[in-house]
Amino acid sequence: MKYDVITVGGSTEDINFYVDDYQLLENKLNPAGNQLLAFDYGTKIDIKKAALTFGGGAANVAVSFASFGLKVAGMITYGNDERGKKIVANLKKRRVDTRFMKRVGNDISGFSFIVIGANKDHVAFSHRAANSRMEISAKDQKVLKRAPWLFITSLSGKWRPVLDKVFAIVDGTKVAWNPGELQLKEGHRALAKYFRKTTILTMNKDEAIQLVVSHNRHANKSYEFFSSVENLLKAIHAWGPEVVVVTDGEHGAYAFDGKEIHFQDVIKSKKKEDTTGLGDAFGSSFVTGLILYEDIKQALFLAAHNAAACLSQQGAQNGLLTKHDLPKLQKLFLRQ
Question: pTM score, two decimals?
Fold first, then answer.
């Protein structure tokens, strides 16, 4: 079977808690200026609402691609438990080919506890579990070669051999990559060889700052330097990716192809329900836009609309746009 995209990474079942009995604290040690979510230690916190949803980077982007009508398969590891069965069943239901998913017999499937505050932003506590057991075999490499696009998401466990084997076969295959926390912590030096083979590199502004500050040339730059998305885009693009995409929350998103910085304003959602999975919705939609339209501006437009749709419903895989929304969005884009 021919695929448009194969995704590589993790899947989880997510337990979502909505709370409002907390404090936001300033964190001067964080270069991105992120606040800390704080609770009274040793007390019980009232949960206003709770729900079970599905998540995980590779699963989220696979569902998004499939929603747009693309043929997609997931190379995802899961555990030998009921949660794993539910994860696989969910992906099948959403028209994702699961034949290349791998069950780990002596581990549980990944899960996350996601705390969602009154403003609908979140903090996720993730247990990688079987996701950290990902391995890429020679047989897997042959499978990956059959797709014109690969989308790599956050990896855990022994992630370096996974990246080595995936990037070893990318001649003729385009790679979109959203590095995870473990990869970004290793910084530029560890990731540089992969950047040179990356077609689309996507991340949020905080992640871009973390990555750029890891390079000796930029480590002592001023606050003003890091506050500029343009500076971040140019610094990262110089390391090899063909296109760098950086999202900046309510301030919109940017893409740089080495010639022009393209900007897309944020699309306001009618309802702000949950920020979980917005990066996955945006990144996968951007790649979908390039596949369908071969135009960066239109890809950004589609990505912004899908992120807004995802924001309007609970969970990372709900509320996503579908192929039936594409004609209307294309008309809206052409009217701009």
Answer: 0.93
